[in-house]
Amino acid sequence: MMEHDKRKSVDLLVDQFWKQGYSTVSRKFGTYLPEPGKVGNFDIDIVARYKKNYAIGIALTEGDIKDPRILEKLSFLATRQTKYTNKRVLLFVGIPQEYFKMTKEMIDFLEHDARKNIRLFPIVERAFYSDNNNRRKELTLFS
Description:
The chain is an alpha/beta fold.
């Protein structure tokens, strides 16, 4: 069950990358893309690219947020740079909706450079509803 939730969280985080214009280079639980390696001692879920800029993404769970080393992990991942060009690598963090405010307050304790490089996204599964049934029930004005 936990792996299913993590898989769903990573899928919803990939959607956020796509909305920002990034294409995924590697991701966890992917069919065709390879899994990303560790960065330092920390696991990451997604590596993405937009033109020549890279970003890494992690989807946090309730256990991750309550971990005492979470600030160390966020600070380390937010201060990463590319190997040869030394460009900053953005950190996308997917957080369950109920922990979003608490995580945002925790990030205020990080130094300014790390804080500036983090993008937070609430992970919310939304159902899509169709209006086709409502359209069929309305009276036709012209035929």
